[in-house]
């Protein structure tokens, strides 16, 4: 695929697969769920053509990277540790970071833990969420949205894996990547993954059957447990990060979200982003972009525009 190179790197006790292309300052691209390095394929090519070296790993648990079995090894400390070890293995002191979805969460954490390694950050879809010391994330989510909210449904080991296996990896990938309902993601067991005339899983212009087949083939090989384990480490993350309560993110940041992104409809998020609190927590926040008509998987849906947004920001540093 356009001369993208692939290699395995030993990092933090696991073997990590990375895709890379180009020469110049390094841009580390961090994917979300249920994605892979492949979600960045347009940005890899675009950034390489503009004089950057784009590096996109499969995160732990995904694709061709090792998948430790215990959800306790999928905290942000582990995954940020993987990325720091990757930079060390590649001999890189500082990099630009771009994150999406879980990758954005991890990128925020990386900037909290090791701001010395990040020149600047472009984060997509997930705004910084300051740690709430009063109660665990799953308690708050269950109280707000009930037991069928996707993050709560993902908690029990084996449950969603069985449902995903029954539906097939291709159906699961299509269902997530084509989400356009900006409301909370409620996934009733009996109906959510069923394909029917009312729910045909047709593909938008930006997502091809070849794309779906690539994602699905890797999830068929690996299963979804690795990706689900990030959600299962939610409460453990909360316990382990008490020392960072109230800490600001002190790297230059650009934040981009689609106006149809389900994360933007969460209670209080728009007020947080636009009302000044976001800027208090992220004092070097330089720009917030809300893209009209774009949903959650914005790096794929609006790939050229996202590449331009990334370049326009990082070229300043």
What does this structure look like?
The chain has 317 residues and is of the alpha/beta class. 38% of the residues lie in helices and 16% in strands. Strands 1-2-4-3-5-6-7-8 form an 8-stranded mixed beta sheet, with helices on both faces. β3, α1 and β4 (53-57) form a beta-alpha-beta unit. α2 crosses α3 and α7 crosses α8. The longest helix is centred in the first third of the chain and has 14 residues, at 76-89.
Structure characteristics:
alpha/beta, Rossmann fold, eight-stranded mixed β-sheet, 8 strands, 38% helix
Mind sketching the topology for me?
Blueprint: E1 5-11, E2 14-21, E3 26-30, H1 41-49, E4 53-57, H2 76-89, E5 95-100, H3 102-113, E6 118-124, H4 137-145, H5 150-153, H6 159-167, H7 169-177, H8 209-222, H9 225-232, H10 234-240, E7 253-258, H11 269-274, H12 277-281, E8 285-291, H13 298-301, H14 303-314
Parallel strand pairs: 3-4, 3-5, 5-6, 6-7, 7-8
Antiparallel strand pairs: 1-2, 2-4
Helix pairs in contact: 1-14, 2-3, 7-8
Summary, kept brief:
This protein is of the alpha/beta class and 317 residues long. The chain has helices at 41-49, 76-89, 102-113, 137-145, 150-153, 159-167, 169-177, 209-222, 225-232, 234-240, 269-274, 277-281, 298-301, 303-314, and strands at residues 5-11, 14-21, 26-30, 53-57, 95-100, 118-124, 253-258, 285-291. The protein has a single domain (5-315), classed as Rossmann fold (3-Layer(aba) Sandwich), CATH 3.40.50.
The mean pLDDT is 96
Q: State which percent range the strand residues make up.
A: 15-25%
Widest sheet: strand order?
1-2-4-3-5-6-7-8
Sketch the topology as an H/E string, one letter per element: EEEHEHEHEHHHHHHHEHHEHH
What name goes with the CATH superfamily?
Alpha/Beta hydrolase fold, catalytic domain
Number of helices: 14
